Amino acid sequence: MTEFAVWAPKPGVVRLDVDGIRHDMTRDGDGWWRADVDAAADSRYGFVLDDDPQILPDPRSPRQPDGVHERSQLWQPAPDAWTDADWAGRSIAGAVIYELHTGTFTPAGTFDAAIEKLDYLVDLGVDFVELMPVNAFNGTHGWGYDGVLWYAVHEPYGGPDGLIRLIDACHARGLGVLIDAVFNHLGPSGNYLPRFGPYLSSGHNPWGSSINLSDADADEVRRYILDCALRWMREFHADGLRLDAVHALMDNTAIHLLEELATETDALAAELGRPLSLIAESDLNDPRLITPRDRGGYGLTAQWDDDIHHAIHTAVSGERQGYYSDFGSLRTLATTLKNGYFHAGTYSSFRHRRHGRPLDTATIPATRLLAYTLTHDQVGNRAVGDRPSQVLDSGQLAVKAALALGSPYTAMLFMGEEWGSSSPFQFFSSHPEPELARATAEGRKAEFAEHGWDADEVPDPQDPATFERSKLNWDEIDEGDHGRLRRLYRDLIALRHTEADLADPWLDHLHVEFDEHQRWIVMRRGALAIACNVGEDATSVPVTGELVLAWGEPQPGPEETTLAGHSFAILRTVKPVSTTAEPVDNALPG
After folding, report:
1. Which of 244, 259, 286, 476 is catalytic?
2. How far apart are alpha carbons 160 and 524 in whole angstroms?
3. Which of 438, 470, 498 is a domain's end point?
């Protein structure tokens, strides 16, 4: 016998359909309906609510082989599916994470095709693979942030069995796996949850109705989220989650959902005997997310840090539009590298108000923040999805890499970044409903037209060519500057793994100097100095020593090093910088 259960406090009657046969269900006092039924291991099933004849998928569906509008399917992994019994896990602190989108990472766009590229990632030196959302969403391809059945795995990628094969293969190669989980909103097509119960609140966020985290009957909705999060780590052996846009989680209870999730994740880690990590994407610059719970925080492992991205990108590229308006100077870059956040209780001209709160750099290590030069958002949410590699020269890309990978923060790459991929990463979708497809395309064009873009330049997300253009071109990875840049990334990552000074996680030990006019900046980390020239002209930097790694042809002298335009050098100095020394002009002291 198989027990079927569904939380459905809203309807007066719920019936179970298993392989076309209807069964009565019994309601408990807490709104759960249950029935014990003889069912095959792969039975298709769903629920019929009241007098509506439509058979709805299970909100906790383990598999959706025919799409999010159809019946669910019972599923369990094969007994011999896993071979990672010896996998001890790994910490993300100071690691290098590689974010990828399964559908565009390879030409085939499947989990099995991604497995074929894992040896390449091992050679590159990354420690974790971070998968953009793999939950079930409507259509064949999309970014995955419009999921509606959070427990199921997107079938076109390979379904749950394919995900198991990918994670198992990663673990066999020493790679951890993080899964991007979206708990702040539901997609526009296939969301039947409100017919079962009060999954949504009266509030709204940028993507629609907010999830009910603190209104009446919120306890079961919270449990729905918590169980889903733990499922990825327990049943699919994921090593952690990236939590999408946690600032959109509207929770006014005394124990925030994130704190509750962190507590249960730590308990699961203890049970499994391996580290499990929670990484938040947050727009708040709020250290409470990564502050330990015994000190009043939520106790998450880490968070994305867009301030670092903005500071690096604007200093190198010169862009200043939109939320880049407060960034661009080397002083801003130095301040951000030194303090973690740039906006830390300071005025944000983009938001027209104060924003953020200072990070306690004496107690919170830098490895709790992620540094990156681009992400799926920072590329795909541009009007035409253009990468920095499509507008910057290879020297500028190299400087950005040196600043991010040479910093004390946990590092992250976005797929193809390491060779300066020529492929854009555009916003794409495949809604089969004509009205929704048209609304998505028109809304995208209107959004960017408001910011001054020509609407005709904005690619149609529903056009299959938009999806195809966004796939990586693996044929170019060894060509010219592509190959040279890839080798540089590999060498930078290797330095992170082998140089003790680059493993120091404390920002109080970081010393930053810069010259706004000459356009150079130096990060001193112990005996290593990472000197970057973001300007076009050659300049001399007041640091010298043994050359460790460089882009360009630096010329170390007795007291200074000459750097070509758009280049960097990592030097081993004779004497490590003293964190108590008086700062030179334009320096931020350690």
Report:
1. 244
2. 46
3. 498
